[in-house]
Amino acid sequence: MHNFLHNQVLGVPPTLSARSEALPDLRLGAVPHAAVLPLAAALLVTVPVFLQAPWVRSAPMAATLFTVPLMAFALLLERHGQGPWRQLGVLLVGFSGSWLGGCLFWGWFRLHPVMHLPIEAFALPLAVAGLGGRWRLAGAFYLGSLLGTASTDGVMAAAGLMDLWPRVLNAPLTQAPLLLQGAALQVLQPWPLALIALAAGLLLVLCRRLWSLGGPWRVAAAAVGTTLAVDGLFLGAALLAPHLSGLI
Questions:
Q1: What gap in Å lies between CA 31 and CA 35, rounded to an integer?
Q2: What string of pLDDT tens digits covers the 248 residues of the chain?
Q3: 10 Å Cβ neighbour count for 172?
């Protein structure tokens, strides 16, 4: 994941020295200091796929209430952590917002795709306000994750796939994989495929630009870039093994 973000998304080798302010020392093996927070952001973007989705599906209230200890741990790290551990705490604050938005939507509004982005964006004013102070890493991560979500939903809507969303989720378990696979096959048609390629290209350009700005914007670049990778993984799973998809 670390090499993918640098070589394929950001266009720079993973050993390139950061041009922004150097991070404090964090003795975490061979991970370069400047890559700690972007790598952490990339890993956090994958959490909803492998942990949150199945948890919300089986116990939405428990997954939602988990936001409380998650936020408490993040604030504890931010207040009492040293060096990069404190910055990781700030990053977790932003992740807590994304986690809560995801739980609310997938737990109670999953059959209404038009509600997806508004619910996920509930903390948008706080994230924008946080960019100017001590919470800028949290704001950058939240905004990067939200941009990835908005891009995915926008492409689905433009490609005419949004109507299939509630049909797949509302279908019996025996039929849902076939419906999901059919939706994935529609993506391979010329117009949706061209639209996806254009959107992915624009997001890659944006990732490079954000990375060049340094500081918290590298966290946003990692979040957007990892969202692209996760979307590609999801499309591949929908085509080859739809029953393994976290959407069903």
A1: 7
A2: 555 455 555 555 554 433 334 444 434 444 555 788 999 999 999 987 788 988 998 999 999 999 999 999 999 999 998 888 999 999 999 999 999 999 999 999 999 999 999 999 999 999 999 998 999 999 999 999 999 999 999 999 998 889 889 998 888 888 888 899 998 999 999 999 999 999 999 999 999 999 999 989 999 999 999 999 999 988 998 888 877 665 55
A3: 7
Using CA atoms, how far apart are residues 136 and 138, in angstroms rounded to an integer?
5
Contact 202, 210 (CB under 8 A): no
Hey, where are the domains in the chain?
2-21+33-244
The dihedral built from the CA positions of residue 137, 235, 103 and 101, taken in this order, carries a sign that is: positive
pTM: 0.84
User: By the 8 A CB rule, do 6 and 18 touch?
Assistant: no
Three-state SS letters, the chain: CHHHHHHHHHCCCCCCCCCCCCCCCCCCCCCCHHHHHHHHHHHHHHHHHHHHHHHHHHCHHHHHHCHHHHHHHHHHHHHHCCCHHHHHHHHHHHHHHHHHHHHHHHHHCCCCHHHHHHHHCCCHHHHHHHCCCCCHHHHHHHHHHHHHHHHHHHHHHHCCCCCHHHHHHHCCCCCHHHHHHHHHHHHCCHHHHHHHHHHHHHHHHHHHHHHHHCCCHHHHHHHHHHHHHHHHHHHHHHHHCHHHCCCC
